[in-house]
């Protein structure tokens, strides 16, 4: 492994990575080769990374994301730039950065429109497994003979990784990188859904279905916005204590009810909440979230990943009742444009990030981090590289 004592610019770096060889198989820590960045690419040294449910779903093979093997998963991280490729002018060696799976090229019709944070060229694509520049990978086996594929524009389960510059955000060097790791996905996705997508208003009511890291981040965002009632719904009651710490005022365990959840919420809120957030990736839950909102103006924000081919459980005529439903990607944040400002807000203490890091482990114990998430014992397990 490169010790960092000499300049590695333009050279192949040998380092450790957690390689996925097949769905459900334990990740293997082994030495790989990481090629130098090409035009408009950046190679970074990962200092911290964490495991998200999207990594877990891909690892399990629950969707089509894991067609390419071997592969390096991971998309929540923070690190330091080791070198930049030709044409990269907004970042340089030594900058502190966080990768983002939802890129921002700055030039496409979507990037130029303030109504969306999507990007035509570097949007999230779980089937993408190579770099945009030349359709090839930057990872290889130790002997350099066989390619190892990329994941979600990022591949952070490696000591070094190469990203398109559009998928990398420079942040203040004073920001604590271990906490900034959370901004790569979970915190930005949840808080952004409350702020940018729903635009939660002071005094409003909110229902959050699924109290994983994203759902609790929604609660934190709603709390900061001044929501008066925040209802958390989960079948795992161990999530409730953590929910209280981020502002959830009421809790519902569907297993304890003899009526549908939406009826219970309707009784608690004089007809329904102003905003509901579906963070579970379950169609039955999505319908309950939709029906839990207020007749006339309720808004449901969809955040959960739904790999099933089943369609929305909503009749078209139900949309004439004034309720709306909308999907949210990365909390509506334009990564390169808006995330640096969001990071500064987090540095100022407006959001409580400490509650989300429930475990910390050395990188070599990444399979333990996966198991903690499988068992519902962790929100985010921070891995130190």
From TrEMBL:
Catalytic activity: a secondary alcohol + NAD(+) = a ketone + NADH + H(+); a primary alcohol + NAD(+) = an aldehyde + NADH + H(+)
UniProt xrefs under CDD domains: alcohol_DH_plants (cd08301)
Enzyme class: oxidoreductase
GO cellular component, one term: cytosol
GO molecular-function terms, A-Z: alcohol dehydrogenase (NAD+) activity; S-(hydroxymethyl)glutathione dehydrogenase [NAD(P)+] activity; zinc ion binding
Domain Alcohol dehydrogenase-like C-terminal span(s) in chain numbering: 213-332
Enzyme Commission number: 1.1.1.1
Biological-process GO terms, alphabetical: formaldehyde catabolic process
Transmembrane feature ranges: none
Keywords from the named record: Metal-binding, NAD, Oxidoreductase, Zinc
Family stated for the protein in its record: Belongs to the zinc-containing alcohol dehydrogenase family. Class-III subfamily.
Name this polypeptide is given: alcohol dehydrogenase
Species this chain originates from: Corchorus olitorius
């Amino acid at each position: 492994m490169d010790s960092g004592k000499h300049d590695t610019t333009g050279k192949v770096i040998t380092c450790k990575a957690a390689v996925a060889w097949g769905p459900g198989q334990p990740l293997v820590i082994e030495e790989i080769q990481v090629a130098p960045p090409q035009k408009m690419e950046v190679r970074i040294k990962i200092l911290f990374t964490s495991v998200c449910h999207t990594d877990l779903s891909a690892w399990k093979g629950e969707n089509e994301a894991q067609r390419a093997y071997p592969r390096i998963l991971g998309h929540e991280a923070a690190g330091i730039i080791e070198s930049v490729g030709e044409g990269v002018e907004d970042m340089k060696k030594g900058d502190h950065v966080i990768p983002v799976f939802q890129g921002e090229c700055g030039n496409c019709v979507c990037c130029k429109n303030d109504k969306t944070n999507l990007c035509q060229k570097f949007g999230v694509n779980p089937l993408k497994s190579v770099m945009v520049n030349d359709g090839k990978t930057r990872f290889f086996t130790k002997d350099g003979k066989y390619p190892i594929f990329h994941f979600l524009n990022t591949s952070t389960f490696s000591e070094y990784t190469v990203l398109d510059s559009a998928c990398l955000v420079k942040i203040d060097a004073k920001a604590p990188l271990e906490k900034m790791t959370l901004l790569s996905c979970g915190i930005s996705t949840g808080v952004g859904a409350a702020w940018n997508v729903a635009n939660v208003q002071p005094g409003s009511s909110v229902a959050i279905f699924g109290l994983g890291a994203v759902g609790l981040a929604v609660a934190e965002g709603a709390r900061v916005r001044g929501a008066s009632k925040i209802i958390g719904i989960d079948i795992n009651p161990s999530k409730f204590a953590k929910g209280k710490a981020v502002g959830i005022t009421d809790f519902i365990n569907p297993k304890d009810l003899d009526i549908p959840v939406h009826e219970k919420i309707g009784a608690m809120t004089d007809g329904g909440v102003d905003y509901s957030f579906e963070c579970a990736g379950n169609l039955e839950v999505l319908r309950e979230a939709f029906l839990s909102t207020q007749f006339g103006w309720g808004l449901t924000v969809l955040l959960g990943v739904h790999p099933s081919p089943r369609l929305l459980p909503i009749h078209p005529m139900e949309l004439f009742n004034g309720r709306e439903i909308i999907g949210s990607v990365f909390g509506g944040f334009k990564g390169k444009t808006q995330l640096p400002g969001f990071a500064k807000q987090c540095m100022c203490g407006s959001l409580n990030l400490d509650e989300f890091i429930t475990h910390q482990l050395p990188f070599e114990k990444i399979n333990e981090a996966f198991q903690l998430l499988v068992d519902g014992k962790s929100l985010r397990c921070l891995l130190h590289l």
